[in-house]
Amino acid sequence: MVGASSSWSRALVKVSPYTFSAVGIAIAIGVSVLGAAWGIYITGSSLIGAAIKAPRITSKNLIRYVPSGVKVVIFCEAVAIYGVIVAIILQTKLESVPTSNIYDPESLRAGYAIFASGIIVGFANLVCGLCVGIIGSSCALSDAQNSSLFVKILVIEIFGSALGLFGVIVGIIMSAQATWPARSA
Amino acid sequence: MYGFEAMTFNIHGGYLEAIVRGHRSELLTAADYNNLCQCETLDDIKMHLSATEYGPYLQNGWDLGENGVIGFGTGDHKMLESGHHANILIHFGHVIVWSKPSPLHTTTIVEKCTLKLVDEYKHMLCQATEPLATFLEYITYGHMIDNVVLIVTGTLHERDVQELLEKCHPLGMFDSIATLAVAQNMRELYRLVLVDTPLAPYFSERITSEDLDDMNIEIMRNTLYKAYLEDFYQFCQKLGGATSEIMSDLLAFEADRRAVNITINSIGTELTRDDRKKLYSNFGLLYPYGHEELSVCEDIDQVRSVMEKYPPYQSIFAKMSYGESQMLDKAFYEEEVKRLCLAFEQQFHYGVFFAYMRLREQEIRNLMWISECVAQNQKTRVHDSVVFIF
């Protein structure tokens, strides 16, 4: 298959690994931030509406308590931070290789590894942000009615944000093996 | 797509849904109703209600009377306390106009409570985007129909238009409503007034060719309501998702309840079977076989035997002993309240708005019943018709 003069697989293989890496990094940060933003607006709109009748849910009176509505938004924000961290890690893995080595199997492997890492992190954070956001919305509404429910629903959120963490872990493991071919002597 | 509304509902509806849930938490609880049922006078009721969310609305019991604006200055209040109706006191150069607070009627309490509902509704309506705005408007068409029928019937019985306008439900008002009193027959009614209102599509050629008399007006009311329910049902189906599922259930119950009520109310009247069948909606649990059977019912026991074939309604009819129909209304209200409360169990759909409006209306009905019982000293009957929401 590979080597036939005009086939899709040949076209894919001829795409520069730098392209794949760059796109992977873009997806890592871009889609994570999409997920985080999505989650924040889902929680935020319910939080604002519910806070009209129950202002305490946005903040507690004493300063030493972290405002409870903010806790939920912090979980969503964490998702975006994961994306930023992984994007920074990935871009340090990008190295230049001499032109003759660009299409070596090793180069391709490195390029694909960075790309995959980016996709893993991006989409895991997308769904994680969504999940945390939807739960946060229900959390805000039920906290407004009954303040003992907040901590219980927060536990569910912790499980939800673990999804993003899984994505980050796997992504970092993937990117650890992104070794470009050494410069040939 | 059903199941995925959570992802996009909050863009347009998140804020309002949270507000509606906040309002719902302020509905009177069983403890409040117990307090109210213990009251001896209407002033007690007002005092208890002032402690709830109705407080600000009931404070304004001052009637401005014919004297216009109240202005205060420093002054000697002894003369005012002697209870004169309208005292103009000129003292130290300040003019004080005083008007006695109007005596508390049950209708005043109900009016003020309805005002609260109207304010909340208007607030939600002006914040809403499509399709929520259309949905909210649909909720009020029932009241519009009631208002139209009220004015037409009142005009038929030679009542004063202003008096009738005051009795109209505020949620169902529209601009040209006063013109209804001018119409002599159905066709004029339609052509002059109703063609510009949202009720226009509910009039068919058949209705507009009838004359206006008591029987026909009732038939008109029921036909309009049937068309409205069907239209609302179609609209909810188009919305899809959780909204359509929950609203279908609620509207189907409404349609079935109306079918039973129409049947029971038309037993012994000159309404033919075919006419009766035409008034039943074309959806709901009873459609079409239940309607067939209901249209031939001649007394309440036959109605009962028809309804007992449907498990959800069996429990309602089982509560009543044979031959008794007074408790049927209350049983239906209780079932309705149960279903409305269930609508709040799910998030990200429009059914909560409909459920909230209906629960408020039920609460106002409860307050009216309690006030009437207290005003007429029939405290023993207070629990006959109060439906607890929580």
Radius of gyration of chain A, Cα only, in angstroms? 21 Å
Q: Beta fraction of the residues of chain B? A: under 5%
> H/E order of the elements of chain B?
HHHHHEEHHHHHHHHHHHHH
Distance between the termini of chain B: 32 Å
Fraction in helix of chain A: over 70%
Distance between the termini of chain A: 32 Å
- What structural class do the secondary elements of chain A suggest? mainly alpha
Taken from the alpha-carbon principal axes, the silhouette of chain A is: elongated
- Tally the beta strands of chain B: 2
Number of strands of chain A: 0
The amount of helix of chain B comes to 55-70%
- Summed up, the helix count of chain B is 18
The dominant shape of chain B is globular
Overall pLDDT score of chain A: 86
**Parts with pLDDT < 50 across at least 5 consecutive residues of chain A:** 60-65
Adjacency order of strands in the biggest sheet of chain B: 1-2
Could you describe the largest sheet of chain A, including whether it forms a barrel? none
Strand content of chain A: under 5%
Which stretches of chain B of 5+ consecutive residues score pLDDT under 50? 62-100
Oligomeric form: heterodimer
From the alpha carbons, calculate the radius of gyration of chain B and give it in angstroms.
24 Å
Features:
heterodimer; A: 185 residues; mainly alpha; 5 helices; 75% helix; 0% strand; B: 390 residues; two-stranded antiparallel ribbon; 60% helix
